[in-house]
């Protein structure tokens, strides 16, 4: 059951929740099950708990186990469905903060004594970024080539049957052929996701955004995810779904970066013994930022936009040297893709394809200053249409979470969407009489049911790939499309794109959004000469471009990066000012009604994402209210049996523990604070049997090095599979050599905004709360902060406090 509430900005004693619903009132620590302390809610692994049977009895439905979740039996995960008032305890945090223990200092001292060591480490970072850019471009080129081959083959087959069955009652034959091919392609994509790797569904941008924010999403950067994403998006796009291949490139680049930077593959159990120094969450996340930027650069030919995308939507922690390396990876990605596609097109070294989609330059006059108010109005419309799109998709997502959770039903749903898409497209093309004469400079014209020498404008929109349709709306001459054709296409594609996003197929959101906006934008551009017959106006393609930008901005609510991406994709800086204003307006208007679509899907999956700033009106909330209490601690010299007992206890799935002096428990404080140690470190110590009858801190012989911790990263051994004898349980481990002796701490009187900024800016995983005598009284983790959210209810504002689900 989800609990939470609104806090008003009053004194602690006078705070009264503004919501009257008992479900959203905060519970005291005494009311929370003792089998799961608040600390356990903050940093836990997936496990069953004693409350499972109680939730079964409450008759709650089961959450769909796909996309963001490990593939498990649905009967093991009962939760409330479709709520955004919940945080999931299954998501762990990444360790961005380095543990400066004795082993770390020893290694840094060796590097400091050898200048070559630091230079080699710095050079290795640039080499990895080069490999990331190159491999991302190769994946992008492979996807593009495969889609062109499959789409070309499909068009050839359908066209051949159209020619032979254009008259008579056999017109259903080409329709059935078209339907069969698309349903086959889409079913392949859906099977790869549902049965292969569920996290490969969608664009992957929400998952990567969470990862770069510091949340460990299961399976998000594994090689199997890349394979399913790569071939799945190929068949999804070739199958005619309202999806794009550009969004999944961001996810693909991130997976490549995560794999290359580690110098090994845990999936294939191959270790190449290179880049071992970078086997940590800190280094890995920096490289994933570069992979995401390289994916944007490969998708749109926008290296600067890629850097800004990684900064705006992804990485929480930034520095100048990282910016240079990410820009380098983006440039390498764009250049390599350009070269590869030039060879594929039979024009070696003709570098005219910087990205998977290039909108092409707009020729002639761009726009007039008196048209800017119309463009601003289009920005408002983009925000409204984007809010409607997000609202419909949100409700569809809730329906999927409730009823479409099995693998089989996910595949069937995708096939139904493919069937409906083909049927609508065929009917629109067949019933349309919008045939136009073919001009000499026209590309990708489709005759379909038109006479010789004519092309079907409806087919140019419905039957082409989405990327070609976008370019047609941008650059086709005035009068190429009738008002009826644009209106029908805009409505149909808007609804199909809304239905399609969230299917169990890899699917990008960028191109469907751009295509929908380009349709209604060109519709406005077509109507403008009739509204202002005396005015000199820009071409309908310019209006289509600004409509596309407004629609995309209204759906995803990105500003800086999208502006630069679209400018780079058109190679035209003249469009920058109205483009920027449109993006800002679309975001402002859309934010009035709901969040961006990526944020909505993140909230639906109950991910503890930390925003850029702490929630307003939270200054009066103190660390004692935020922290987890009681706390599980270890002594500096601890018995092996107790460590093993704590780590194996399913009720204590904590991932970090304060290390303290010996103390007498009193239920309020937990000893003098000396440092912190992670669960993963303890498991490595137990695995390597780093214990003795009575260890000596000054013993120079330590049977484990920092390489042992890196070699087990990121899949540490299961604690239940370690063999520890009864005699060894009586041995002792000196944790002082392995713990972090100088972690960040806060006073019990620290405010929530201060804790939030410290936690987010430094990428912390645990923040120990101490009293005036340096005694541990609590611990703060990501979920303890993410559960405070600013909200409005019936015109009132306050702080909403979410509860944490353990299923």
For this entry, give a set of tags.
CBS domain, mainly alpha, 3-stranded antiparallel sheet, 3-stranded mixed sheet, 27 helices, repeat
Strand order of the largest sheet: 1-18-17
Task: Return Rg in Å.
Answer: 28 Å
The 3D shape can be described as elongated
Structural class label: mainly alpha
Largest sheet, strands/sense/barrel: 3 strands, antiparallel
Q: Let me know the average pLDDT.
A: 83
Provide the low-confidence segments as ranges: 1-79
Q: How many separate helices?
A: 27
Helix content: 40-55%
Beta-strand portion reads: 5-15%
Instruction: Compute the number of strand runs.
Output: 19
End-to-end distance? 11 Å
InterPro entries: CBS_dom (IPR000644), CBS_dom_sf (IPR046342), Cl-channel/antiporter (IPR051280), Cl-channel_core (IPR014743), ClC (IPR001807)
Organism: Patiria miniata
Pfam family, one: Voltage_CLC
Region (Disordered): 1-57
Summarize the entry for a quick read.
By secondary structure, this protein is mostly helical. It contains 27 helices and 19 strands.
């Amino acid at each position: 059951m989800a609990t939470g509430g609104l806090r008003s900005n009053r004194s602690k004693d006078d705070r009264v929740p503004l919501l009257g619903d008992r479900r959203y009132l905060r519970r005291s620590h005494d009311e929370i099950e003792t089998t799961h302390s608040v600390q356990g809610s903050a940093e836990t692994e997936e496990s069953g708990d004693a409350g499972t049977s109680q939730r079964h009895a409450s008759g709650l439905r089961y959450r769909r186990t796909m996309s963001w979740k490990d593939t498990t039996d649905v009967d093991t995960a009962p939760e409330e469905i479709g709520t955004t008032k919940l945080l999931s305890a299954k998501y762990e945090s990444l360790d961005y903060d380095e543990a400066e223990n004795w082993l770390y200092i020893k290694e840094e001292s060796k590097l400091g004594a050898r200048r070559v060591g630091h230079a080699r480490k710095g050079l290795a970072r640039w080499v990895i970024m080069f490999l990331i850019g190159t491999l991302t471009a190769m994946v992008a080129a492979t996807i593009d080539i495969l889609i062109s081959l499959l789409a070309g083959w499909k068009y050839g087959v359908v066209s051949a049957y159209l020619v032979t069955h254009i008259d008579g009652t056999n017109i259903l034959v080409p329709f059935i052929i078209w339907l069969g091919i698309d349903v086959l392609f889409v079913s392949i994509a859906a099977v790869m996701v549902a049965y292969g790797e569920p996290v490969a569904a969608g664009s992957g941008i929400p998952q990567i955004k969470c990862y770069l924010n510091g949340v460990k999403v299961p399976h998000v950067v594994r090689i199997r995810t890349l394979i399913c994403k790569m071939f799945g998006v190929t068949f999804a796009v070739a199958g005619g779904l309202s999806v794009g291949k550009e969004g999944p490139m961001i996810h693909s680049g991130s997976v490549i970066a995560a794999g290359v930077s580690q110098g090994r593959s845990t999936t294939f159990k191959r270790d190449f013994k290179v880049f071992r120094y970078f086997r940590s969450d800190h280094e890995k996340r920096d490289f994933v930022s570069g992979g995401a930027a390289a994916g944007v650069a490969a998708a749109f030919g926008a290296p600067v936009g890629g850097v800004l995308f990684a900064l705006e939507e992804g990485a929480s922690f930034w520095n100048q040297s990282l910016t240079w390396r990410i820009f380098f990876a983006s440039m390498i990605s764009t250049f390599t893709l350009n070269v590869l596609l030039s060879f594929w097109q039979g024009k070696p070294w003709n570098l005219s394809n910087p990205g998977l989609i290039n909108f092409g330059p707009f020729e002639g006059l761009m726009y007039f200053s008196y048209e800017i108010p119309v463009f601003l109005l289009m920005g408002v419309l983009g925000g409204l249409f984007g809010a409607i799109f997000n609202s419909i998709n949100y409700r569809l997502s809730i329906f999927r979470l409730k009823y479409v959770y099995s693998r089989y039903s996910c595949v069937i749903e995708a096939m139904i969407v493919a069937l409906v898409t083909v049927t609508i497209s065929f009917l629109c093309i067949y019933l349309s009489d919008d045939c136009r004469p073919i001009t000499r400079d026209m590309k990708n014209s489709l005759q379909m049911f038109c006479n010789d020498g004519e092309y079907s404008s409806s087919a140019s929109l419905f039957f082409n790939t989405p990327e070609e349709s976008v370019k047609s709306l941008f650059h086709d001459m005035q009068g190429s499309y009738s008002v009826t054709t644009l209106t029908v296409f805009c409505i149909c594609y808007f609804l199909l794109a809304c239905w399609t996003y969230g299917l169990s197929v890899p699917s990008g959101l960028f191109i469907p959004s751009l295509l929908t906006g380009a349709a209604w934008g060109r519709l406005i551009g077509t109507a403008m000469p009739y509204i202002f017959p005396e005015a000199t106006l820009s071409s309908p393609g310019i209006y289509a471009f600004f409509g596309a930008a407004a629609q995309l901005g209204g759906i995803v609510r990105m500003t800086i990066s999208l502006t630069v991406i679209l400018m780079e994709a058109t190679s035209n800086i003249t469009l920058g000012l109205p483009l920027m204003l449109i993006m800002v307006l679309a975001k402002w208007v859309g934010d009035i009604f709901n969040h961006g679509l990526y944020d909505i899907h993140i909230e639906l999956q109950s991910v503890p994402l930390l925003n850029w700033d702490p929630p307003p009106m939270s200054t009066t909330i103190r660390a004692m209210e935020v922290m987890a209490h009681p706390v599980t601690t270890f002594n500096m010299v601890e018995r092996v049996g107790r460590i093993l007992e704590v780590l194996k206890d399913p009720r204590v799935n904590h991932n970090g523990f304060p290390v303290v002096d010996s103390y007498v428990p009193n239920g309020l404080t937990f000893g003098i604070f000396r440092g912190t140690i992670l669960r993963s470190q303890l498991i490595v110590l137990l695995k390597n049997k780093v214990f003795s009858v009575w260890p000596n801190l000054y013993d120079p012989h330590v049977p484990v090095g920092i390489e042992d911790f890196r070699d087990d990263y990121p899949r540490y051994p299961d604690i239940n599979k370690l063999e520890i004898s009864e005699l060894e349980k009586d041995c002792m481990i000196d944790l002082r050599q392995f713990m972090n002796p100088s972690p960040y701490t806060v006073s019990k009187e620290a405010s929530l905004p201060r804790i939030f900024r410290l936690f987010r800016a430094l990428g912390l995983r645990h923040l120990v709360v101490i009293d005036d005598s340096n005694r541990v009284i609590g611990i703060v983790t990501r979920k303890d902060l993410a559960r405070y959210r600013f909200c409005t209810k019936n015109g009132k504002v306050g702080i909403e406090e979410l509860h944490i689900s353990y299923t």
